[in-house]
Amino acid sequence: GNSVTQMEGPVTLSEEAFLTINCTYTATGYPSLFWYVQYPGEGLQLLLKATKADDKGSNKGFEATYRKETTSFHLEKGSVQVSDSAVYFCALSAGYKLSFGAGTTVTVRA
Amino acid sequence: NAGVTQTPKFQVLKTGQSMTLQCAQDMNHNSMYWYRQDPGMGLRLIYYSASEGTTDKGEVPNGYNVSRLNKREFSLRLESAAPSQTSVYFCASSVGLAGGSETQYFGPGTRLLVL
Q1: Which of A57, A91, B33, B63 could form a disulfide with A48 if both were Cys (CB 3.0 to 4.6 A apart)?
Q2: B108: distance to nearest CA of chain A, Å?
């Protein structure tokens, strides 16, 4: 079946540090891939997405590239801010539903 | 434009009690979903409704029922709550089914504690 594996957290960084969160997936066919973010006390919101191989999604300084050859969709940001502290979920869309990874908690210290 | 709203925000139940979680969206979306979020497990789909008048089971439907009351509203009912249903519940909606590149929009969640 379809599944998503993302790096375990928690991840703690200093402001302006580089952030990478690894995500790999298993799926049949050609899923769409997403990163959702959950800020403290809120629901999830879409951060970025990519719908086909080699597509790059980007938003708010975050980027992720759909790599079919390595079945990966790693999230990166070059310089994090305190406001980026949140839980990040990698997800894939296939069939009728989204399959989510377990989530990675990121804390950015000033 | 409130997006997806959920009530209540927090609820404590005793084992065996029943309750209904309410969800409404004002984006004219066709599809709606109920998820539960448990530590270390991401979100798991309980039920979904592809369109008004239809509902289907997701990954973890046991112990739950749903009603798609109209296009806007999608409720989740626990008939006899169990401690294993302690979780955070999220409602979401999308223009169409999440089979392709559809974005889902999430509510703020309901935190449920079953004693």
Answers
A1: A57
A2: 4
3-class state of residue B79 by DSSP: coil
B31: part of which helix (H) or strand (E)?
strand B31-37
CA atoms within 13 A on the CB side of B83: 1
**pLDDT of the residue at B101:** 76
A32 touches chain B (CB under 8 A): yes
Q: Given strand B74-78, what is the order of strands in its sheet? A: B4-7, B19-25, B74-78, B64-68
Residue to mutate among B51, B103, B105, with most A CBs inside 10 A, is B103
- C-alpha B57: how far from its chain's center? 12
Phi first, then psi: what are they for A84, rounded to 5°? -85, 0
Alpha-carbon dihedral sign for residues A35, B39, A2, B53: negative
Q: State which residue of chain A sits closest to B102, comparing Cα positions.
A: A93
Q: Per-residue pLDDT for B78 more than 70?
A: yes
How far apart, in whole angstroms, are the C-alpha atoms of residue B72 and residue B42? 26
Q: Is the pLDDT of residue B40 over 90?
A: no
Residues of chain B with C-beta less than 8 angstroms from the C-beta of A55: none
The one-letter code for the residue type at B20 is: T
